[in-house]
Design brief:
Elements lengths: L1 H15 L14 E9 L5 E3 L6 E6 L4 E9 L5 E2 L5 E8 L2 E7 L4 E9 L3 E5 L5 E6 L14
Antiparallel strand pairs: 1-2, 1-3, 1-10, 3-4, 4-5, 4-6, 6-7, 7-8, 8-9, 9-10
Length: 147
């Protein structure tokens, strides 16, 4: 019986240590995000040192919006197409999710953590996606800032 109490206590400690996401932090999702690595359920990692595309998120005050894949160009612009996913942010038992919807599928990802420069998302298969905030590439503008 004492062993079960210890296991329960350890479980409660781990559950309570999860970082709490505040509603005002959800606006940090807006913008360009570059994937750094993916951690699979069994513990293996896949690192991305160079990305051909970024994820662009745009959400409004009603927590609805879209996600789009964009390709950064050397002059600080992005190539885009008409493909996107409608998204809605959902709060289920104090855990925030991004609910995606296309004409072909619906799925959710948990927002594990979010800050102004880091984002962690986890899908139903316990795969965790690590993103960093991305900025336009400005190699061809001779050091000038891109808009």
């Amino acid at each position: 019986m004492k062993q079960w109490n210890r296991i329960l206590l350890i479980f409660l400690v781990f559950v309570s240590c999860k970082p709490e996401i505040k509603p005002q932090q959800l606006q940090l999702l807006n913008g360009y995000w570059e994937i750094e690595k993916v951690v699979f359920e069994e513990g293996s990692d896949k690192f991305y040192t160079m990305n051909e595309s970024y994820d662009y998120f745009e959400i409004n005050k009603e927590n609805k919006g879209f996600r789009k894949k964009v390709k950064p160009q050397l002059n600080g612009t992005f190539l885009v197409n008409d493909t996107y996913e409608n998204i809605q942010l959902q709060n289920l038992s104090n855990t925030y999710f991004i609910a995606y919807e296309t004409p072909y599928a619906k799925w959710k990802e948990e927002i594990v953590s979010i800050s102004k420069d880091k984002l962690l998302l986890k899908n139903d298969e316990n795969t965790t996606y690590h993103y960093k905030k991305a900025a336009p590439i400005t190699i061809l503008n001779h050091g000038k800032k891109s808009k």
